[in-house]
């Protein structure tokens, strides 16, 4: 099949376009514009009790566009509860109050399985965050930590159990938001999870969310002992917050990533509240946070993106997540560039467009941020965005 250059003569079939979209949907940890947004605690509802319309929505509600890349589910907050199993709590969506497995205090959240799969089908990774500010998340020994890693693997990841809270939905990894206790057992926990993941045929991610003071009082030794894929540093509720430029210490974390971390490819995220009520201190507006992200992106090779607490607050604050994603995209767009892709795996079907303007497909506009898979006309040719982009990569279609 020969691609004709002018769109008025040829329109690529939906099959080839879909092929490009599927390639673009895969999560890429190596990027420097990823956005991780926590979900589960209905933070907006906690600070705006009377505004139920703004309370946390279903998980899939936050997966309808390409803005968010990673969603940690918050939280698995008790490691060892009734029946030896953990406890999970997702506020107004699912908790022990909405139903548990017999003989345990483990919430049965199998109603969330479809949402998890829907988000994953759109290229997002869904992880489980352990701990939290009030979590009972401690180990007495390495042996206990390894046993718990087995439990997490079987309940939420690639293992099997009769008490899987999300049914047949398989999460993409775990996040460790450990804000108290000690580091005992955590290196063993991470290593055991990695051993399960190796050879499983699926990529699993392990992240951490330390406080910005370096080293983290509780989790510092763990970060030095085992490799993490990404670290969501909480630059709020501390002197080194995003709101205090003189003490903001992203450079220190970048140095740790390059010189101390066992994984020299670890990505460091700027953690931030998505609205003023979302944290005790450290909130900055979207313009300020966006500038910090652009500064870090240009200056530090370890920069991986931004983490926000949380989804409900971001949506309640005028889609704060969109503003930050736009800022990481560079602000001003650039023209689509590149050359025709290699032969598609699916044979394209030649069709005749209903009009000379590619059947109503809009002309590319440099001021517009496009979702992954968006189609535009540029110089008479059809292009599709490889991922969320304002100045990113476009795939030539015809």
TrEMBL record:
UniProt-listed SUPFAM superfamilies: (Trans)glycosidases, Carbohydrate binding domain
Chemical reaction(s) catalysed: Random endo-hydrolysis of N-acetyl-beta-D-glucosaminide (1->4)-beta-linkages in chitin and chitodextrins
EC number(s) reported in the record: 3.2.1.14
Alphabetical UniProt keywords: Carbohydrate metabolism, Chitin degradation, Chitin-binding, Glycosidase, Hydrolase, Polysaccharide degradation, Signal
All residue ranges annotated as the GH18 domain in the record: 33-331
CDD domains: ChiC_BD, GH18_hevamine_XipI_class_III
PANTHER family assigned to the protein according to its UniProt record, in alphabetical order: ENDOCHITINASE (PTHR45708)
Similarity comment: Belongs to the glycosyl hydrolase 18 family.
Protein name (database record): chitinase
Organism annotation: Amanita thiersii Skay4041
Native organism taxonomy: Eukaryota, Fungi, Dikarya, Basidiomycota, Agaricomycotina
């Amino acid at each position: 099949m020969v691609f004709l250059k002018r769109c008025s003569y040829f329109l690529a079939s939906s099959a080839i376009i879909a092929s490009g979209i599927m390639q673009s949907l895969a999560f890429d940890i190596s990027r420097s514009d990823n956005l991780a947004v926590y979900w589960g605690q209905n933070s907006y509802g906690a600070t705006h009790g009377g505004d139920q319309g703004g309370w946390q929505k279903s998980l899939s509600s936050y997966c309808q566009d390409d803005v968010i890349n990673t969603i940690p589910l918050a939280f698995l907050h008790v490691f060892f509860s009734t029946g030896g199993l953990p406890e999970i709590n997702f506020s107004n969506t699912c908790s022990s109050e909405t139903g548990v497995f017999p003989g345990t205090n483990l919430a049965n959240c199998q109603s969330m399985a479809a949402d998890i799969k829907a988000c994953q089908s759109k290229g997002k990774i869904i992880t489980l965050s352990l701990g939290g500010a009030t979590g009972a998340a401690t180990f007495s020994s390495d042996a206990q930590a390894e046993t718990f890693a087995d439990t997490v693997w079987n309940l939420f990841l690639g293992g099997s159990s009769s008490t899987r809270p999300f049914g047949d939905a398989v999460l993409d990894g775990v996040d460790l938001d450990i804000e108290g206790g000690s580091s005992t057992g955590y290196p063993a926990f991470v290593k055991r999870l990695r051993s399960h993941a190796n050879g499983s045929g699926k990529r699993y991610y392990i992240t951490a969310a330390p406080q910005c003071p370096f080293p983290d009082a509780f989790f510092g030794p763990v970060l030095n002992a085992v490799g993490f894929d990404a670290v969501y540093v909480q630059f709020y509720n501390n002197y080194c917050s995003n709101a205090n430029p003189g003490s903001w210490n992203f450079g220190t974390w970048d140095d740790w990533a390059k010189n101390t971390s066992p994984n020299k490819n670890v990505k460091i995220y700027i953690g931030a509240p998505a609205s003023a009520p979302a944290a005790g201190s450290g909130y900055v507006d979207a313009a300020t946070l966006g500038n910090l992200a652009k500064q870090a992106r240009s200056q530090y090779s370890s920069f991986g993106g931004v983490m926000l607490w949380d989804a409900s607050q971001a949506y309640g604050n005028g889609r704060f997540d969109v503003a930050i994603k736009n800022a990481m995209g560079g602000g001003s767009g650039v023209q689509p560039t590149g050359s025709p892709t290699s032969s598609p795996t699916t044979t394209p079907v030649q069709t005749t467009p209903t009009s000379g303007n590619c059947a109503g497909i809009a002309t590319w506009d440099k001021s517009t941020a496009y979702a992954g898979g968006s189609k535009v006309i540029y110089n008479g040719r059809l292009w599709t965005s490889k991922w969320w982009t304002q100045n990113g990569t476009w795939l030539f279609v015809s």
